[in-house]
Amino acid sequence: MWRRIASHLYVRIWLAVVATVIVLTFLVGAAWRLTADSPLLPIREVLILNDGGEIIGTTQTRPDRKPRDGLEFSVMTKSGETLHLVLPRPQRPPGNPWNRLPFGFGWMLVLVGLAVAVGAYPIMRRLTLRLEALQRGVERWGAGDLSARVNAEGRDEVAFLAERFNHAAERIETLMDSHKSLLANASHELRSPLARIRMGLELMGTDASTPQRIEISRSINELDQLIDEILLASRLDARQADAEPFETLDLTGLAAEECARLNVELNAELPDDPGAAAPNRTVNMQGSARLLRRLIRNLLENARRYSTGEVTLELEQTGTGAQRQAVIRVNDRGPGVPPDQRERIFEPFYRLPGASEREGGVGLGLALVKSITVRHGGTVRCEDRPGGGASFVVRLPVGAAS
User: 286 near 400, Cβ under 8 Å?
Assistant: First the structure.
């Protein structure tokens, strides 16, 4: 608890100021005590006068061997008589001098500490609130919200830093928007020449079973799929909500259709609704049927691409009420994914070391899976599968809206 509180910058600055003042107060108090314990009078000449004003003796003040008791010195008069003079220190009230009211040093220390603590806290907090606002803005921006900006009011270094951050964030956001727009437009425009190539190939009238014709058709299909994935990824990055409207759909039906298309086993473990007349065998949620179908298809195709054994899809529903979640788990028997690569495989155009283009895919399939999952308010991760292989787990909130 204390470590968490002391980790804040304003707390550390405030404690440093208070500690500094307390130390200075102790030093001043120590110096004051030493001064109070010093002799009452400096070394100087003392004259002894009689009633007539005549000097009858002289001496110099000297502290005795017990200066805390006062001053004591001897005076030799003209008549040869020796006089002993004692100047005692003033008597102090009984009790601890450090705790006497109202001007004891202990009370002075307490008052000074309270005054500094009360006066320094608002100043420190006002300064560090701006730093915390800057920190939150940088964290939002680093998390992917390129529209995040911070308050740049003021004329000090914090305001200058905030202004520079806003300027850099605006430039990067503009560049990213231009990049996404260019990518989307280029992907869209590539469809026209690709369609003409496919049409020209059909009009050539050559045998469709020849190796050359088969290779050209396969390349055209891969290029068409790549363009489609790039276009979809750019639209998801641009958060075009109108492009993929959400509706109520049956996630179980979508999973069953994709599993049947790829000949993959589907295991659905759905809890029965106690108030329903018949057992529950569906997961109804708000989402885009096209996007969720692409999510399941990409996971299954990725598992088929690298698996040397069976591929299964498990669908279950967990939680109750507002905490209900649909869990999609795609299992394979491939080589698995190293722990240090399980986050990077969801980056666009990233493939595991050693993967070749012959295995298919360009590294957009799993990136689309993550984008679609985030669009539906869910999470996706890669895990080890007992017995070998990998499991891709997608959790989607049931009833999520765009």
Answer: yes
What CATH number labels 158-241?
1.10.287.130
The per-residue b/e assignment along 327-364, b for 16 or more CB within 10 angstroms, e otherwise, is: bbbbbbbbebbeeeebeebbebebbeeeeeeeeebbbb
Q: Residue 288 to residues 93, 230, 254, 353, 402: CA-CA distances in angstroms?
A: 87, 18, 11, 33, 9
pTM of the model: 0.54
100's tokens:
């006497």
Per-residue 3-state assignment (H helix, E strand, C coil) for 75-135: EEECCCCEEEEEEECCCCCCCCHHHCCCCCHHHHHHHHHHHHHHHHHHHHHHHHHHHHHHH
Higher pLDDT, 176 or 296: 296
* DSSP 8-state class, residue 155: S
Structural element, H or E, at residue 284: strand 284-287
Q: What is the pLDDT of residues 316-328, one digit of tens each?
A: 988 877 788 999 9
Find residue 243's DSSP bridge partners.
Answer: none
CATH fold of 244-397 reads: Heat Shock Protein 90 (3.30.565)
Q: Please determine, for residue 246, whether its predicted confidence score (pLDDT) is greater than 80.
A: yes
In the three-class reduction of DSSP (H, G, I as helix; E, B as strand; rest coil), residue 216 is classed as helix
State the virtual CA torsion across 220, 224, 227, 232 in degrees, nearest 10. Answer: -170
pLDDT surpassing 90 at residue 5: no
253-284 confidence digits (pLDDT tens) = 999 999 999 889 888 876 655 544 444 567 88
Strand pairing report for 82-88 and 45-49: unpaired
261: three-class secondary structure by DSSP: helix
How many Cα neighbours within 13 Å face the side chain of 207? 4
**Distance from C-alpha of 311 to C-alpha of 301, rounded to nearest angstrom:** 10
Q: What stretch(es) of the chain map to CATH 3.30.565.10?
A: 244-397
